[in-house]
Amino acid sequence: MSASFLLAIDQGTTSSRAVVYDAALAPVASAQREFNQHFPQSGWVEHDADEIWDGVVAVCRDAMAEAGIEASQIAGIGITNQRETTVIWDRATGKPIAKAIVWQDRRTAEHCRTLEAAGHGATVSERTGLRLDPYFSATKIGWLLDHVEGARARAEAGELAFGTIDTFLLWRLTGGDVHATDATNASRTALFDISAQRWDDDLLQIFGVPRSLLPDVRDCAAEFGATAPSLFGAPIPVRGIAGDQQAALIGQACFAPGMTKSTYGTGCFVISNTGDTLLRSKNQLLSTVGYRLDGVVTYALEGSIFVAGSAIQWLRDALQVIDSAPDSAAIAEAHGIERDVIVVPAFTGLGAPYWDPDARGAVLGLTRGSGREALVTATLQSVALQTWDLVGAIREDGVTPAEIRVDGGMVANDWFLQFLADVTRSHIERPQQTESTVLGAAALAGLQAGVFDSLDALSGAWQRDAAFAPKLGEADATTLTDAWRDAVARVRG
Ligand code: ADP
Protein backbone atom coordinates (compact mmCIF):
# COMPACT_ATOMS: atom_id res chain seq x y z
CA MET A 1 0.00 0.00 0.00
CA SER A 2 1.45 3.37 -0.93
CA ALA A 3 1.82 6.14 1.61
CA SER A 4 -0.74 8.75 0.63
CA PHE A 5 -2.26 9.90 3.91
CA LEU A 6 -1.06 12.95 5.83
CA LEU A 7 -1.02 13.38 9.59
CA ALA A 8 -1.35 16.95 10.85
CA ILE A 9 -0.64 17.91 14.45
CA ASP A 10 -2.20 21.16 15.73
CA GLN A 11 -0.66 21.92 19.10
CA GLY A 12 -2.77 24.87 20.33
CA THR A 13 -2.92 26.97 23.47
CA THR A 14 -5.63 24.96 25.20
CA SER A 15 -5.69 21.65 23.34
CA SER A 16 -3.76 19.40 20.99
CA ARG A 17 -5.34 17.86 17.91
CA ALA A 18 -4.30 15.39 15.27
CA VAL A 19 -6.12 15.06 11.95
CA VAL A 20 -5.55 12.42 9.28
CA TYR A 21 -6.11 13.71 5.73
CA ASP A 22 -6.32 11.79 2.49
CA ALA A 23 -4.33 12.73 -0.62
CA ALA A 24 -7.09 15.15 -1.71
CA LEU A 25 -6.76 16.98 1.64
CA ALA A 26 -10.14 15.77 2.88
CA PRO A 27 -10.16 15.03 6.64
CA VAL A 28 -10.55 11.35 7.41
CA ALA A 29 -10.28 11.14 11.21
CA SER A 30 -9.32 13.36 14.12
CA ALA A 31 -8.67 13.32 17.85
CA GLN A 32 -8.32 16.10 20.38
CA ARG A 33 -7.14 16.41 23.97
CA GLU A 34 -7.09 19.39 26.33
CA PHE A 35 -4.28 20.00 28.80
CA ASN A 36 -3.78 22.02 31.96
CA GLN A 37 -3.11 25.72 32.14
CA HIS A 38 -0.91 26.88 35.01
CA PHE A 39 -1.23 30.40 36.45
CA PRO A 40 1.39 30.55 39.20
CA GLN A 41 1.13 34.34 39.59
CA SER A 42 -0.93 37.17 38.18
CA GLY A 43 0.06 37.66 34.53
CA TRP A 44 1.97 34.36 34.36
CA VAL A 45 0.84 31.48 32.12
CA GLU A 46 2.70 28.15 31.92
CA HIS A 47 2.29 24.78 30.21
CA ASP A 48 3.83 21.46 31.15
CA ALA A 49 5.71 20.46 27.97
CA ASP A 50 5.78 16.80 29.09
CA GLU A 51 1.99 16.81 29.42
CA ILE A 52 1.70 18.39 25.95
CA TRP A 53 4.00 15.70 24.55
CA ASP A 54 1.95 12.86 26.08
CA GLY A 55 -1.24 14.41 24.68
CA VAL A 56 0.21 14.85 21.20
CA VAL A 57 1.35 11.22 20.99
CA ALA A 58 -2.06 10.08 22.23
CA VAL A 59 -4.07 12.12 19.70
CA CYS A 60 -1.82 10.96 16.84
CA ARG A 61 -2.36 7.32 17.81
CA ASP A 62 -6.12 7.87 18.26
CA ALA A 63 -6.53 9.63 14.90
CA MET A 64 -4.56 6.87 13.12
CA ALA A 65 -6.66 4.19 14.83
CA GLU A 66 -9.90 5.94 13.92
CA ALA A 67 -8.75 6.28 10.31
CA GLY A 68 -7.75 2.61 10.38
CA ILE A 69 -4.29 3.28 8.96
CA GLU A 70 -0.74 2.22 9.77
CA ALA A 71 2.33 4.44 10.01
CA SER A 72 3.54 3.09 6.66
CA GLN A 73 0.50 4.64 4.93
CA ILE A 74 1.41 8.17 6.08
CA ALA A 75 3.46 10.19 3.59
CA GLY A 76 4.33 12.88 6.10
CA ILE A 77 3.57 14.64 9.35
CA GLY A 78 2.87 18.37 9.41
CA ILE A 79 3.11 20.32 12.66
CA THR A 80 1.44 23.61 13.47
CA ASN A 81 1.65 25.13 16.91
CA GLN A 82 0.88 27.91 19.34
CA ARG A 83 3.61 30.41 18.53
CA GLU A 84 6.23 32.06 20.79
CA THR A 85 5.69 29.69 23.75
CA THR A 86 9.14 28.87 25.06
CA VAL A 87 10.61 25.53 26.17
CA ILE A 88 14.19 24.85 27.29
CA TRP A 89 15.26 21.25 27.81
CA ASP A 90 18.28 19.14 28.64
CA ARG A 91 19.88 17.77 25.47
CA ALA A 92 21.00 14.60 27.27
CA THR A 93 17.65 13.60 28.78
CA GLY A 94 15.09 15.57 26.72
CA LYS A 95 13.60 16.79 30.02
CA PRO A 96 12.37 20.42 30.17
CA ILE A 97 14.25 22.41 32.82
CA ALA A 98 11.02 24.19 33.82
CA LYS A 99 7.46 24.65 32.66
CA ALA A 100 7.05 26.31 29.26
CA ILE A 101 6.37 30.06 29.34
CA VAL A 102 3.27 30.67 27.23
CA TRP A 103 2.90 33.51 24.69
CA GLN A 104 0.29 35.21 26.89
CA ASP A 105 2.68 35.44 29.86
CA ARG A 106 3.56 39.03 30.86
CA ARG A 107 6.31 38.34 33.42
CA THR A 108 9.02 39.96 31.31
CA ALA A 109 7.18 43.30 30.86
CA GLU A 110 9.65 45.12 33.12
CA HIS A 111 12.61 43.63 31.26
CA CYS A 112 11.11 44.82 27.96
CA ARG A 113 10.68 48.34 29.35
CA THR A 114 14.35 48.35 30.45
CA LEU A 115 15.49 47.25 26.99
CA GLU A 116 13.25 49.90 25.39
CA ALA A 117 14.70 52.58 27.66
CA ALA A 118 18.20 51.43 26.65
CA GLY A 119 17.22 52.18 23.03
CA HIS A 120 16.95 48.61 21.69
CA GLY A 121 13.38 48.93 20.36
CA ALA A 122 14.50 50.14 16.93
CA THR A 123 16.95 47.24 16.41
CA VAL A 124 14.30 44.72 17.37
CA SER A 125 11.67 46.11 15.00
CA GLU A 126 14.15 46.66 12.16
CA ARG A 127 15.59 43.13 12.24
CA THR A 128 12.55 41.11 13.33
CA GLY A 129 9.47 43.09 12.25
CA LEU A 130 8.17 42.66 15.81
CA ARG A 131 7.90 44.91 18.86
CA LEU A 132 9.82 44.79 22.11
CA ASP A 133 7.08 42.96 23.97
CA PRO A 134 6.88 40.04 26.45
CA TYR A 135 4.69 38.23 23.87
CA PHE A 136 7.76 37.06 21.89
CA SER A 137 10.17 34.30 22.97
CA ALA A 138 13.45 36.20 23.51
CA THR A 139 12.81 37.61 26.99
CA LYS A 140 11.12 34.38 28.05
CA ILE A 141 14.36 32.49 27.25
CA GLY A 142 16.34 35.04 29.26
CA TRP A 143 13.96 34.67 32.19
CA LEU A 144 14.37 30.88 32.29
CA LEU A 145 18.16 31.12 32.06
CA ASP A 146 18.24 33.60 34.94
CA HIS A 147 15.68 31.96 37.22
CA VAL A 148 16.28 28.22 36.89
CA GLU A 149 19.30 27.36 38.99
CA GLY A 150 22.43 26.74 36.96
CA ALA A 151 20.61 27.13 33.64
CA ARG A 152 22.73 29.94 32.22
CA ALA A 153 26.01 28.10 32.88
CA ARG A 154 24.59 24.89 31.44
CA ALA A 155 23.32 26.76 28.37
CA GLU A 156 26.76 28.27 27.84
CA ALA A 157 28.28 24.79 28.13
CA GLY A 158 25.97 23.61 25.31
CA GLU A 159 23.97 21.24 27.52
CA LEU A 160 20.56 22.82 26.90
CA ALA A 161 18.29 23.38 23.89
CA PHE A 162 15.63 26.01 23.27
CA GLY A 163 12.58 25.59 21.11
CA THR A 164 9.09 26.81 20.45
CA ILE A 165 6.58 23.98 20.78
CA ASP A 166 7.13 22.71 17.22
CA THR A 167 10.83 22.30 17.93
CA PHE A 168 10.28 20.53 21.22
CA LEU A 169 7.78 18.13 19.61
CA LEU A 170 10.16 17.51 16.69
CA TRP A 171 13.02 16.75 19.09
CA ARG A 172 10.85 14.25 20.96
CA LEU A 173 9.30 12.75 17.81
CA THR A 174 12.75 12.11 16.30
CA GLY A 175 14.07 10.65 19.55
CA GLY A 176 16.40 13.63 20.06
CA ASP A 177 17.90 13.41 16.57
CA VAL A 178 16.70 16.71 15.14
CA HIS A 179 16.86 20.19 16.69
CA ALA A 180 15.14 22.36 14.08
CA THR A 181 12.32 24.78 13.46
CA ASP A 182 10.84 26.54 10.45
CA ALA A 183 11.19 30.18 9.36
CA THR A 184 7.70 31.20 10.57
CA ASN A 185 8.28 30.01 14.12
CA ALA A 186 11.79 31.47 14.12
CA SER A 187 10.32 34.82 13.03
CA ARG A 188 8.33 35.02 16.29
CA THR A 189 11.25 34.66 18.68
CA ALA A 190 12.59 38.25 18.28
CA LEU A 191 16.05 36.69 17.70
CA PHE A 192 15.73 36.06 13.97
CA ASP A 193 16.61 38.56 11.25
CA ILE A 194 13.71 38.14 8.83
CA SER A 195 15.53 39.79 5.88
CA ALA A 196 18.76 37.85 6.21
CA GLN A 197 16.93 34.71 7.43
CA ARG A 198 19.40 33.98 10.22
CA TRP A 199 19.75 34.22 13.96
CA ASP A 200 21.09 37.70 14.68
CA ASP A 201 24.20 38.15 16.86
CA ASP A 202 23.19 41.66 18.00
CA LEU A 203 19.79 40.41 19.13
CA LEU A 204 21.35 37.40 20.88
CA GLN A 205 23.55 39.88 22.74
CA ILE A 206 20.69 42.28 23.59
CA PHE A 207 18.54 39.45 24.98
CA GLY A 208 21.45 37.51 26.53
CA VAL A 209 20.76 34.28 24.65
CA PRO A 210 23.68 31.89 23.94
CA ARG A 211 23.71 30.74 20.32
CA SER A 212 24.25 27.12 21.38
CA LEU A 213 20.61 26.98 22.51
CA LEU A 214 19.15 27.65 19.08
CA PRO A 215 17.66 25.25 16.54
CA ASP A 216 18.48 25.00 12.84
CA VAL A 217 15.97 27.01 10.75
CA ARG A 218 14.45 25.28 7.70
CA ASP A 219 11.76 25.92 5.07
CA CYS A 220 8.14 25.25 6.08
CA ALA A 221 8.08 22.25 3.75
CA ALA A 222 11.33 20.37 4.38
CA GLU A 223 12.79 17.09 5.58
CA PHE A 224 12.69 17.38 9.36
CA GLY A 225 13.71 13.79 10.10
CA ALA A 226 11.61 10.74 10.94
CA THR A 227 9.73 9.67 14.05
CA ALA A 228 11.37 7.12 16.31
CA PRO A 229 10.07 3.67 15.14
CA SER A 230 8.77 2.79 18.60
CA LEU A 231 6.27 5.68 18.64
CA PHE A 232 3.84 4.72 15.88
CA GLY A 233 5.03 1.26 14.85
CA ALA A 234 7.22 2.48 11.97
CA PRO A 235 9.10 5.71 11.23
CA ILE A 236 7.04 8.54 9.68
CA PRO A 237 8.84 11.49 8.05
CA VAL A 238 8.10 14.94 9.47
CA ARG A 239 7.76 17.16 6.41
CA GLY A 240 6.03 20.40 7.33
CA ILE A 241 6.12 22.99 10.13
CA ALA A 242 4.47 26.41 10.48
CA GLY A 243 3.20 28.55 13.34
CA ASP A 244 -0.58 28.50 13.74
CA GLN A 245 -1.50 31.80 12.06
CA GLN A 246 0.86 31.19 9.16
CA ALA A 247 -0.50 27.66 8.76
CA ALA A 248 -3.99 29.20 8.52
CA LEU A 249 -2.71 31.55 5.78
CA ILE A 250 -1.55 28.44 3.88
CA GLY A 251 -4.75 26.49 4.67
CA GLN A 252 -6.73 29.42 3.25
CA ALA A 253 -4.53 29.29 0.11
CA CYS A 254 -3.59 32.98 0.45
CA PHE A 255 -0.63 32.65 -1.91
CA ALA A 256 -0.77 35.97 -3.81
CA PRO A 257 0.17 39.42 -2.49
CA GLY A 258 -2.88 41.12 -0.98
CA MET A 259 -4.64 37.86 -0.14
CA THR A 260 -5.81 38.05 3.46
CA LYS A 261 -7.17 35.67 6.04
CA SER A 262 -8.84 36.51 9.34
CA THR A 263 -9.28 33.92 12.08
CA TYR A 264 -12.04 34.38 14.68
CA GLY A 265 -11.44 32.17 17.69
CA THR A 266 -10.91 33.42 21.23
CA GLY A 267 -9.07 36.38 19.70
CA CYS A 268 -8.74 37.43 16.07
CA PHE A 269 -5.67 37.36 13.84
CA VAL A 270 -5.59 39.05 10.45
CA ILE A 271 -2.70 38.22 8.12
CA SER A 272 -2.10 39.67 4.65
CA ASN A 273 0.33 38.18 2.18
CA THR A 274 2.81 40.89 1.04
CA GLY A 275 4.78 38.68 -1.37
CA ASP A 276 8.53 39.20 -1.50
CA THR A 277 8.18 42.69 0.01
CA LEU A 278 9.01 43.07 3.67
CA LEU A 279 6.58 45.93 4.37
CA ARG A 280 7.34 48.12 7.36
CA SER A 281 4.03 49.04 8.95
CA LYS A 282 3.39 52.66 9.84
CA ASN A 283 0.38 51.53 11.85
CA GLN A 284 1.88 49.24 14.45
CA LEU A 285 1.18 46.04 12.59
CA LEU A 286 3.82 43.32 12.72
CA SER A 287 5.89 42.23 9.73
CA THR A 288 6.52 38.54 9.72
CA VAL A 289 7.40 35.53 7.61
CA GLY A 290 4.21 34.24 5.95
CA TYR A 291 5.96 31.09 4.76
CA ARG A 292 9.27 29.99 3.28
CA LEU A 293 9.35 27.42 0.49
CA ASP A 294 12.42 26.35 -1.53
CA GLY A 295 14.39 29.03 0.30
CA VAL A 296 12.07 31.80 -0.96
CA VAL A 297 10.44 33.93 1.72
CA THR A 298 6.90 35.25 1.38
CA TYR A 299 6.33 38.03 3.89
CA ALA A 300 3.12 39.04 5.62
CA LEU A 301 1.60 41.81 7.71
CA GLU A 302 -0.13 40.70 10.87
CA GLY A 303 -2.55 42.39 13.24
CA SER A 304 -4.25 40.83 16.23
CA ILE A 305 -7.28 41.61 18.36
CA PHE A 306 -7.19 40.15 21.87
CA VAL A 307 -10.96 39.75 22.31
CA ALA A 308 -13.19 38.26 19.59
CA GLY A 309 -15.06 35.03 20.41
CA SER A 310 -14.25 35.62 24.07
CA ALA A 311 -16.59 38.65 23.96
CA ILE A 312 -19.37 36.22 23.03
CA GLN A 313 -18.30 34.00 25.95
CA TRP A 314 -18.54 37.10 28.15
CA LEU A 315 -22.17 37.57 27.05
CA ARG A 316 -22.84 33.94 27.89
CA ASP A 317 -20.85 33.40 31.09
CA ALA A 318 -20.45 36.77 32.82
CA LEU A 319 -23.58 38.63 31.72
CA GLN A 320 -25.63 35.47 31.09
CA VAL A 321 -27.71 37.18 28.40
CA ILE A 322 -27.35 34.27 25.95
CA ASP A 323 -27.42 30.52 26.57
CA SER A 324 -24.91 29.62 23.91
CA ALA A 325 -22.63 31.45 21.45
CA PRO A 326 -24.68 30.47 18.35
CA ASP A 327 -27.79 32.15 19.93
CA SER A 328 -26.14 35.51 19.24
CA ALA A 329 -26.85 35.15 15.49
CA ALA A 330 -30.65 34.83 15.83
CA ILE A 331 -30.79 37.68 18.35
CA ALA A 332 -28.86 40.04 16.07
CA GLU A 333 -30.85 38.91 13.05
CA ALA A 334 -34.14 39.80 14.80
CA HIS A 335 -32.77 43.04 16.25
CA GLY A 336 -30.99 44.43 13.17
CA ILE A 337 -27.95 46.68 13.22
CA GLU A 338 -27.55 48.44 16.58
CA ARG A 339 -26.94 52.18 16.17
CA ASP A 340 -26.97 53.53 19.75
CA VAL A 341 -25.11 51.09 21.95
CA ILE A 342 -21.41 50.51 21.38
CA VAL A 343 -19.49 47.80 23.21
CA VAL A 344 -15.71 48.21 23.30
CA PRO A 345 -14.43 44.85 24.59
CA ALA A 346 -10.99 46.11 25.65
CA PHE A 347 -10.98 43.66 28.59
CA THR A 348 -7.21 43.24 28.51
CA GLY A 349 -6.23 46.41 26.69
CA LEU A 350 -6.32 46.97 22.95
CA GLY A 351 -4.20 45.12 20.38
CA ALA A 352 -3.28 46.37 16.91
CA PRO A 353 -3.34 49.07 15.70
CA TYR A 354 -3.53 50.72 19.17
CA TRP A 355 -1.32 48.50 21.37
CA ASP A 356 -2.76 50.13 24.46
CA PRO A 357 -2.35 47.83 27.49
CA ASP A 358 -4.12 50.29 29.80
CA ALA A 359 -7.40 50.62 27.87
CA ARG A 360 -10.37 48.88 29.49
CA GLY A 361 -13.78 47.82 28.19
CA ALA A 362 -16.88 50.01 28.10
CA VAL A 363 -20.51 50.04 27.02
CA LEU A 364 -21.49 53.44 25.64
CA GLY A 365 -24.67 55.01 24.30
CA LEU A 366 -27.14 53.24 26.60
CA THR A 367 -30.71 54.60 26.57
CA ARG A 368 -33.73 53.57 28.66
CA GLY A 369 -34.78 51.29 25.84
CA SER A 370 -31.45 49.46 25.44
CA GLY A 371 -31.95 45.79 26.23
CA ARG A 372 -30.25 42.48 25.94
CA GLU A 373 -30.71 42.37 22.17
CA ALA A 374 -28.88 45.67 21.76
CA LEU A 375 -26.02 44.46 23.95
CA VAL A 376 -25.65 41.15 22.12
CA THR A 377 -25.79 42.78 18.70
CA ALA A 378 -23.36 45.54 19.67
CA THR A 379 -20.92 42.91 20.96
CA LEU A 380 -20.96 41.06 17.63
CA GLN A 381 -20.54 44.40 15.88
CA SER A 382 -17.53 45.22 18.07
CA VAL A 383 -15.59 42.26 16.67
CA ALA A 384 -16.28 43.42 13.11
CA LEU A 385 -15.43 47.02 13.96
CA GLN A 386 -12.10 45.98 15.47
CA THR A 387 -11.42 44.14 12.20
CA TRP A 388 -12.29 47.38 10.36
CA ASP A 389 -9.52 49.06 12.40
CA LEU A 390 -7.05 46.37 11.34
CA VAL A 391 -8.07 46.34 7.70
CA GLY A 392 -7.80 50.14 7.66
CA ALA A 393 -4.26 49.88 9.02
CA ILE A 394 -3.38 47.23 6.41
CA ARG A 395 -4.78 49.43 3.62
CA GLU A 396 -2.86 52.45 4.89
CA ASP A 397 0.30 50.37 4.83
CA GLY A 398 -0.26 49.82 1.12
CA VAL A 399 -1.96 46.42 0.89
CA THR A 400 -5.47 46.28 -0.55
CA PRO A 401 -7.14 43.00 0.27
CA ALA A 402 -9.47 42.02 -2.56
CA GLU A 403 -11.33 39.71 -0.23
CA ILE A 404 -10.97 38.39 3.29
CA ARG A 405 -11.04 34.65 3.84
CA VAL A 406 -12.38 33.87 7.30
CA ASP A 407 -12.16 30.89 9.65
CA GLY A 408 -12.47 30.03 13.35
CA GLY A 409 -15.46 29.32 15.60
CA MET A 410 -17.25 32.66 15.08
CA VAL A 411 -17.59 32.30 11.32
CA ALA A 412 -20.54 29.94 11.78
CA ASN A 413 -22.42 33.20 12.48
CA ASP A 414 -23.77 34.50 9.14
CA TRP A 415 -25.11 37.73 10.64
CA PHE A 416 -21.64 38.55 11.94
CA LEU A 417 -20.05 37.90 8.54
CA GLN A 418 -22.60 40.09 6.73
CA PHE A 419 -21.93 42.94 9.16
CA LEU A 420 -18.19 42.35 8.74
CA ALA A 421 -18.59 42.78 4.97
CA ASP A 422 -20.70 45.91 5.56
CA VAL A 423 -18.24 47.77 7.78
CA THR A 424 -14.96 46.64 6.22
CA ARG A 425 -16.38 47.23 2.70
CA SER A 426 -14.77 43.91 1.75
CA HIS A 427 -15.88 40.64 0.25
CA ILE A 428 -15.87 38.01 2.96
CA GLU A 429 -15.36 34.40 1.97
CA ARG A 430 -15.94 31.37 4.15
CA PRO A 431 -14.34 28.11 2.98
CA GLN A 432 -15.90 24.67 3.27
CA GLN A 433 -13.06 23.55 5.54
CA THR A 434 -12.88 26.17 8.30
CA GLU A 435 -10.14 24.25 10.14
CA SER A 436 -7.56 26.19 8.15
CA THR A 437 -4.70 25.91 10.64
CA VAL A 438 -4.44 22.15 10.78
CA LEU A 439 -5.22 21.94 7.05
CA GLY A 440 -2.23 24.22 6.38
CA ALA A 441 0.06 21.87 8.32
CA ALA A 442 -1.19 18.90 6.29
CA ALA A 443 -0.74 20.87 3.05
CA LEU A 444 2.93 21.59 3.86
CA ALA A 445 3.66 17.93 4.57
CA GLY A 446 1.83 16.94 1.38
CA LEU A 447 3.80 19.43 -0.67
CA GLN A 448 7.11 18.11 0.64
CA ALA A 449 6.03 14.49 0.20
CA GLY A 450 5.08 15.14 -3.42
CA VAL A 451 1.40 14.34 -2.83
CA PHE A 452 0.86 17.56 -4.81
CA ASP A 453 3.48 19.28 -6.88
CA SER A 454 2.82 22.97 -6.23
CA LEU A 455 0.84 25.55 -4.33
CA ASP A 456 -1.51 25.75 -7.33
CA ALA A 457 -2.93 22.39 -6.35
CA LEU A 458 -3.78 23.82 -2.94
CA SER A 459 -5.41 26.89 -4.45
CA GLY A 460 -7.54 24.53 -6.53
CA ALA A 461 -8.50 22.53 -3.44
CA TRP A 462 -9.80 25.65 -1.64
CA GLN A 463 -13.61 25.55 -1.87
CA ARG A 464 -15.96 28.39 -1.02
CA ASP A 465 -18.86 27.65 1.30
CA ALA A 466 -20.40 31.14 1.40
CA ALA A 467 -19.58 34.72 0.37
CA PHE A 468 -20.77 38.00 1.86
CA ALA A 469 -20.65 41.31 -0.04
CA PRO A 470 -21.28 44.77 1.47
CA LYS A 471 -25.02 45.54 1.42
CA LEU A 472 -25.17 48.51 3.73
CA GLY A 473 -24.82 51.96 2.11
CA GLU A 474 -21.39 53.53 2.40
CA ALA A 475 -22.66 56.60 4.32
CA ASP A 476 -24.44 54.36 6.79
CA ALA A 477 -21.27 52.32 7.32
CA THR A 478 -19.25 55.48 7.86
CA THR A 479 -21.66 56.65 10.58
CA LEU A 480 -21.09 53.37 12.40
CA THR A 481 -17.31 53.43 12.05
CA ASP A 482 -17.11 57.11 13.11
CA ALA A 483 -19.07 56.30 16.26
CA TRP A 484 -16.77 53.33 16.89
CA ARG A 485 -13.66 55.48 16.50
CA ASP A 486 -15.07 57.98 18.98
CA ALA A 487 -15.90 55.19 21.46
CA VAL A 488 -12.37 53.74 21.21
CA ALA A 489 -10.90 57.19 21.90
CA ARG A 490 -12.89 57.30 25.14
CA VAL A 491 -11.57 54.02 26.53
CA ARG A 492 -7.88 54.59 25.77
CA GLY A 493 -5.65 54.31 28.83
P1 ADP B 1 -10.11 28.83 19.81
O1 ADP B 1 -9.44 28.01 18.74
O2 ADP B 1 -9.48 30.16 20.07
O3 ADP B 1 -10.37 28.06 21.08
P2 ADP B 1 -12.51 28.51 18.15
O4 ADP B 1 -12.03 28.78 16.78
O5 ADP B 1 -12.87 27.14 18.57
O6 ADP B 1 -11.56 29.21 19.23
O7 ADP B 1 -13.80 29.46 18.34
C1 ADP B 1 -14.50 29.50 19.56
C2 ADP B 1 -15.01 30.90 19.79
O8 ADP B 1 -16.02 31.22 18.84
C3 ADP B 1 -15.65 31.03 21.16
O9 ADP B 1 -15.08 32.14 21.81
C4 ADP B 1 -17.14 31.24 20.90
O10 ADP B 1 -17.66 32.21 21.80
C5 ADP B 1 -17.17 31.74 19.48
N1 ADP B 1 -18.34 31.25 18.73
C6 ADP B 1 -18.63 29.97 18.40
N2 ADP B 1 -19.78 29.91 17.67
C7 ADP B 1 -20.21 31.17 17.53
C8 ADP B 1 -21.35 31.79 16.87
N3 ADP B 1 -22.25 31.05 16.19
N4 ADP B 1 -21.47 33.13 16.96
C9 ADP B 1 -20.55 33.88 17.61
N5 ADP B 1 -19.47 33.36 18.24
C10 ADP B 1 -19.31 32.04 18.20
CATH superfamily of the domain at 5-244: ATPase, nucleotide binding domain
CATH architecture of the domain at 5-244: 2-Layer Sandwich
Helix content: 25-40%
Rg from Cα: 22 Å
For the secondary structure, the number of strands is: 22
CATH structural class of the domain at 5-244:
Alpha Beta
- Ligand names: adenosine-5'-diphosphate
Uncertain runs are: none
- Secondary-structure-derived class: alpha/beta
State the strand order across the main sheet: 16-17-15-14-20-21-22
Major sheet, described briefly? 7 strands, mixed
Question: How many individual helices?
Answer: 17
Shape call: globular
> Which range does the strand content fall in?
15-25%
Regarding quaternary structure, how should these chains be classified? single chain
Residue-averaged pLDDT, rounded?
A: 95
